[in-house]
Design goal:
Number of strands: 2
Order of helices and strands: HHHHHHEEHHHH
Mean pLDDT: 84
Length: about 300
């Protein structure tokens, strides 16, 4: 069927390049739906989600075994060692959600995002399917937006998988109830559950810069493996640089610098300064690398 035949009933040929053309937007949502189904049906994606879901299980079991004699988790029974919030897990299983997110955020979560984002464009080029996708009337810009939306959906899904797995394990192994904030105040379980959901959303949003960076790298090569490896390599490099004291002047501009600021949501009152800096920095990275990805992809000579 030709485009004219697929157009309006009066026989007019629609302007497929116009963003107001309803058929173009229909193609856009169709591509987004297809991208979501394709991404979440891949064994690699399911394996990544499975690994992320296993981390809270391992942490919960380790804490349960370590505290079976009544001691507190951490080295020498001290609550100060180990990941954030781990000293509170035995008192309230909800803290396992915060601990699991603190454990997975520095590497496991962004690595998974890097794999999905790095493969978004380069994987299609490597498989020889990118040219066929560009035949769709939605065009390159809308295809890129659909890819980015898919990566961000995976960000949210991966974060929720960690949170739900941790909540389930925490409820099975430890008591639930009112909890104590970092500030020492008491809040009820419903408030704590709401803050856990808000923290999960903040963690997902914290990965926006990583997603945009990975998508940009994916437009630079036709090898999905190379794009994934480069994205994960950049993640590791930035994490190392963020730990070097001599680079303290540059560290506030690294996309990972404020990742653990989500802990401020467990204060009373909430400290918003670092949270706002984190979200603003992620927006900046998304704007810069998203624009770079668009400039590269819309001018790229697609051969496959």
């Amino acid at each position: 069927m030709s485009r004219a035949e697929a157009g309006p009933a009066d026989g007019r040929n629609p302007d497929w390049s116009s963003p107001r053309t309803p058929w173009a937007w229909a193609w856009t949502f169709g591509i987004l739906r297809s991208e979501l189904l394709t991404t979440f049906r891949r064994w690699r994606t399911l394996a990544l989600l499975g690994v992320l879901a296993a981390v809270p299980v391992l942490v919960g079991i380790a804490v349960k075994i370590e505290t079976s004699d009544g001691s507190s988790p951490g080295r020498d029974g001290g609550g100060g060692a180990g990941p954030a919030f781990i000293s509170q897990v035995t008192n309230n299983g909800l803290f396992l959600v915060f601990t699991a997110l603190a454990v997975t955020l520095p590497f496991f979560l962004p690595m998974a995002i890097g794999v999905v984002a790095g493969d978004a464009i380069a994987g299609e080029a490597n498989a020889g399917t990118l040219r066929y996708l560009l035949v769709a009337p939605a065009g390159r810009t809308r295809l890129l937006l659909a890819k980015f939306a898919t990566v961000m959906t995976f960000c949210a899904a991966a974060t929720l998988v960690v949170a739900l797995s941790a909540l389930t394990v925490g409820a099975l192994l430890f008591p639930l109830g009112d909890l104590t904030t970092i500030s020492g105040t008491r809040i009820d379980f419903a408030d704590g559950l709401l803050r856990a959901l808000l923290i999960a959303l903040v963690v997902a949003a914290s990965l926006t810069g990583m997603a945009a960076l990975g998508l940009f790298v994916s437009t630079l090569t036709s090898s999905g493996i190379a794009a994934m490896a480069t994205t994960v390599g950049l993640l590791i490099t930035v994490q190392i640089l963020d730990q070097i004291p001599q680079l303290h002047a540059l560290q506030p501009y690294f996309f990972s610098h404020y990742w653990l600021s989500f802990a401020d949501l467990m204060r009373e009152p909430v400290y918003w300064d670092d949270l706002q800096k984190n979200l603003g920095l992620q927006g900046l990275y998304a704007a810069v690398f998203g624009s770079a990805a668009w400039a590269r992809f819309t001018t790229k000579d697609v051969m496959a």
